[in-house]
Amino acid sequence: MPVDDDAQPLLDVPDGVVTLLVAKVPLEMAVFPEMAVMALARGGPLAAGPYVKDLLMRTSDYIWRDGDDCPYQIAPAVRSLLKGMGANVAACTRDRKPEVRIKALVALRGMGGQMLPHAADVAQLLSDEDSTVRAAAAYALGSVGGRAGRWAAELAALLSDGDPAVRYAAAFTLGGAGRKAAPHLRGLSALLGDEDFRCRLPAVR
User: Fold this and answer.
1) Are 139 and 160 contained in the same domain?
2) How far is CA 90 from CA 122, 160, 166, 200, in A?
3) For the chain, what is the domain count?
4) Which residues in the chain come in under a pLDDT of 70?
5) Is 89 in the same domain as 171?
């Protein structure tokens, strides 16, 4: 039967889909996870939107890895679905739970250039009270390359963060931010003497 391109989105998500999404196991390990994702994908953002947090929290960060680095067959379907719901994912960066904010940031980073419309949401988390969130936000901005230079000052401020993971992520992204990072080269150079060797690596770059 041919698909009607003008058909309205399927708004009624089957109960079985919800059961899979809220199961206490990762989505990749659920029974017939492809059916759950495909049902949500068919419904479009309006249908899948209410379950975006479940998708984020029940899937491994490995879904954003390509080829042999990603062992999950369901990964392409999950990536495609989340990329089509960028606004919904970005809304999760404002969740009260830091673990949800982190998952949203990982997903946004995985979207690459498609994250750009939501970069401002990501940048707001550079000052998050949770250091893991700050690191994830700084790292996520790296996916937009030189356009991250818009937040060069905020990233530079994190070069002296107490958490080495934050310093590393800020240096990594700032190093690829182009000319707008130039005023902050001294701060980057200072990391060459950082006590954590990981922070010295992006400073060398």
Assistant:
1) no
2) 8, 27, 20, 31
3) 2
4) 1-34, 66-74, 203-205
5) no
Same domain, 154 and 137: no
pLDDT for residue 86:
92
Domain limits for position 43: 38-144
Distance CA 109, CA 107 (A): 5
* Terminal alpha carbon distance of the chain: 55
Q: Are residues 164 and 197 in the same domain?
A: yes
Q: Mind listing the pLDDT tens digit for each residue in 4-55?
A: 444 443 345 666 666 666 666 666 656 666 677 777 777 777 778 888 888 8
Instruction: Please provide the size of the chain in residues.
Output: 205
Lookup: tokens for 127: 């000052």
Residues 183, 196, 97: CA angle, nearest 5 degrees: 85
What is the rounded CA–CA span in Å between residue 46 and residue 85?
A: 9
**pTM over 0.70, yes/no:** yes
